[in-house]
Amino acid sequence: AQQPGTPLSDQEYQHFFNFLRITIQESTACHLRELYGCKNSLVQRLDEYENHGVIPPGPICSELPGNHFFHNFCTFSLYRCIMKKYFLKV
């Protein structure tokens, strides 16, 4: 274990910045979704990128316990943003 107040190791810094980079990107994408909605062309491009070029048609079922059901991918993505479950898949 490292002493409190000492710098992170190279591996710890890499993990820290990878986590920070992912978190900031996801929160930025969520902020865009909340501001502009799912009809915005940038938000749609992000959704397409996440799904290999095609936004899945609804309904969407997720890996959440209790068989969570969403009417469309936009609703599912907004739920992930609100709950901060960025890597939840359908």
From TrEMBL:
- Tell me what this protein is called: Acrosin-binding protein
Which Gene Ontology terms of cellular component type are present? acrosomal vesicle; nucleus
Q: What is the lineage of its organism?
A: Eukaryota, Metazoa, Chordata, Craniata, Vertebrata
Which key words tag this protein in UniProt?
A: Cytoplasmic vesicle, Phosphoprotein, Signal
Highest taxon above the source species = Eukaryota
Record-linked InterPro entries = Proacrosin-bd
Gene that specifies this protein = Acrbp_1
Described by its record, this protein's role is as follows:
Acrosomal protein that maintains proacrosin (pro-ACR) as an enzymatically inactive zymogen in the acrosome. Involved also in the acrosome formation.
Cellular location(s):
Cytoplasmic vesicle, Secretory vesicle, Acrosome
